[in-house]
Amino acid sequence: MEFSNILKLVRSCDEQGELENIIASLHKNLYITGIQRGLDNYRTDFEKTAYETIFSDINSKDIRDNSDIEKYLDVLLDTVKNLNKIKITIAISPNNHLLDALASWTEKNMRQKYIFDIEVDPQILGGAIISSKKGVYKDFSLSRKINDIFTIHKKEIFSQI
């Protein structure tokens, strides 16, 4: 099953967890209240967008029977749980603009859907440290660059003091 319009919403592990909770809630309430939910009860913009996108996808695929909706939600949940992750350490807490830029860059350059396991560490000053489960580790932090400059020019720096 194709879920690209829903998966586009997920850029970070936090959003992954939120989407998993939304899908689990829909699954749990499927036989109690039906698939639809009131449009005024959303806690976040992400939650509202996720519900609307899921409902739209179900409608566009013309899925009507509760057992088919249940299968759809099961496959969607499994897909969301198994998204590829990249760990990234940055100096500041990311805003939506930064998350969009990261997601756009990975989609364009890696041709595969990845989400970010984000760690905030102000000590790196700027840039990013990127690692993956495949053993890739790249340090593009400003603190590393400054440290490299000091290491290379140590004698010159100390001679000026």
Description:
56% of the residues lie in helices and 13% in strands. It is built from 7 helices and 4 strands, in the order H-H-H-H-E-H-E-E-E-H-H. The N and C termini lie far apart (66 Å). It has 161 residues and is an alpha+beta fold.
Characteristics:
single chain; 161 residues; alpha+beta; Protein Binding, DinI Protein, Chain A; 7 helices; elongated
State the strand order across the main sheet.
2-1-3-4
* Biggest pleated-sheet summary: 4 strands, mixed
Intertermini distance: 66 Å
- List segments where confidence is low: pLDDT < 50 over at least 5 consecutive residues: none
Strand fraction? 5-15%
What is the residue-mean pLDDT, rounded to a whole number? 90
Round the Cα radius of gyration to an integer and report it: 21 Å
Which sequence of SSEs, written as H and E, runs from N to C? HHHHEHEEEHH
Find the structural class using helix and strand composition: alpha+beta
- Enumerate how many helices there are, as a single number: 7
The residue fraction in helices comes out at 55-70%
Count every beta strand, where a strand is a DSSP E run of 2 or more residues: 4
Shape: elongated
Count of the separate structural domains: 2
